[in-house]
Amino acid sequence: MTVKVASHHIDAVYDATQIMSLFAGLLADGDVDDKKAGEMSWLLGSAKKALDPIIDLLEELQAEQKPSHAREEVPA
After folding, report:
1. CA angle 17, 9, 21 (to 5 degrees)
2. Which residues contact 34 (CB under 8 A, 6 or more apart)?
3. Can you tell me the distance from the alpha carbon of 32 to that of 29, in angstroms, rounded to the nearest whole number?
4. For the chain, counts of helices (H) and of strands (E)
5. Residue 71 gets which letter from DSSP?
6. How far apart are CA 76 and CA 60, in angstroms?
């Protein structure tokens, strides 16, 4: 089976990294009230939901790259 990366996969990763960058700045400033925290939580949950299929896709791509006799490499 050939696994393909589509533009919506790239968009989801881009969106998630931008959300994380924005939220890191807000949290560093310490200017987060309950309403903002709730909105941030909802957006992070949405980003996670969008990234879940991409994780599956990357795992499939990784499996396709491995020879069937290869052992799993453990990072040093």
Report:
1. 5
2. none
3. 8
4. 2, 0
5. P
6. 23
Residue 71 pLDDT > 90: no
How many CA atoms are closer than 13 Å to the CA of 14, on its beta-carbon side? 6
State the residue for tokens 């996670």: 48
Query: At residue 16, what are phi and psi to the nearest 5 degrees?
Result: -65, -40
DSSP state letter for 69 = T
The dihedral sign for the CA sequence 46, 50, 51, 55:
positive
If you average pLDDT over every residue of the chain, what do you get?
87
Query: 63 near 3, Cβ under 8 Å?
Result: no
Q: How far apart are CA 1 and CA 60, in angstroms?
A: 9
Q: Among 50, 56, 45, which Cα is nearest to 23's?
A: 45
What would the pLDDT profile of 16-39 be if each residue is shown by its tens digit?
A: 999 999 999 999 999 899 999 999
